[in-house]
Amino acid sequence: MNLTDLVKTSNYVVAFTGAGISTESGIPDFRSTSGLYLSGKFEGHSPEEILSKRFFLKDKPTFFAFYKERLHNLLNKKPNRSHHALVKLEQVGKLKCIVTQNIDNLHETAGSSKVLDLHGNGARSRCISCCEKYNYEQFSKMLEEKEVPRCFCGGVVRPDTVLFDEWLNDDIFDAAYHEIKSADLVISIGSSLVVQPAASLLSEKTPECKLVIINNTETPYDKKAALVIHENCGDVLETLTKDIS
Ligand code: CNA
């Protein structure tokens, strides 16, 4: 069966998305050749090292300098045809939930109503002392004005995203688990499927549930999929939208 037939014969579709869905919006992913990991070291540190809790605790000025230069501005980007295709898939009653590893807020901006942000959301920030929340504009201003953003209480304000070596939010992970368990079709879009525990959620689908993988390179889950499409996800989802409308 092709993707259109799989969607048409399914009742509970869940999309599992990664950085590859946002590359058409001008946001680099992590692991492809133009990805953030290959964008070079920052003040002698790799992006992976800087984006860890350990590094955040040790050297906040470098953490925030890196965040401001390489990540924060990416939150200004616009959703692309893949994000819009998933909105359409929800409107026709097929897509019930998006489980995303992305922090770029683009599913929400596009208008998808049920999005589980496994790794948090860079459009939000919070004080690590009093938990006061700040929006994107407020946090941007703090980043411009201070080496280390500070709350009115004096605490450090950080993006509401999950760093490497940090736990995922239990409630969001549990909700994602239940969505995958409820699905009769899971479509993984633009993810290398190597980041854990996020990728392990795909193993939680029921045996009856079919898995489709849309990614322009191979993934460790390809052998478990009913259908693997090694193409640009924008092209694939645009075609799907035309076929189902
Ligand atoms: P990844 O490991 O960088 O994998 C992305 C995958 O998408 C790669 O296999 C690419 O080959 C593939 N890809 C890139 N563009 C396309 C395209 N147009 N069509 C099809 N495939 C494409 O990223 P994952 O999401 O798998 O890894 C999870 C990390 C990345 C999470 O912690 C994210 O928070 C983090 N991340 C998020 C963003 C974002 O929010 N947009 C950007 C960069 C990294």
Relevant terms:
245 residues, alpha/beta, Rossmann fold, SIR2/SIRT2 'Small Domain', 2 domains, six-stranded parallel beta sheet, three-stranded antiparallel beta sheet, 9 helices, elongated, binds carba-nicotinamide-adenine-dinucleotide
Bound molecules: carba-nicotinamide-adenine-dinucleotide
- Strand-residue fraction? 15-25%
- CATH level-3 fold name of the largest domain: Rossmann fold
Which CATH-level-2 architecture of the largest domain? 3-Layer(aba) Sandwich
CATH superfamily of the largest domain: TPP-binding domain
Unreliable residue runs: none
Mean pLDDT: 94
Rg over CA atoms, rounded to whole Å, is 18 Å
What sort of overall outline do the alpha carbons produce when their principal axes are compared? elongated
SSE order:
HEHHHHEHEEEHEHEEEH
Helix content: 25-40%
End-to-end Cα distance:
18 Å
Please give the structural blueprint.
Layout: H1 3-8, E1 13-17, H2 47-50, H3 53-58, H4 60-71, H5 81-91, E2 95-100, H6 106-110, E3 115-117, E4 120-127, E5 133-134, H7 136-145, E6 157-161, H8 170-182, E7 185-189, E8 210-214, E9 227-229, H9 233-244
Parallel strand pairs: 1-2, 1-7, 2-3, 7-8, 8-9
Antiparallel strand pairs: 4-5, 4-6
The structure holds carba-nicotinamide-adenine-dinucleotide.
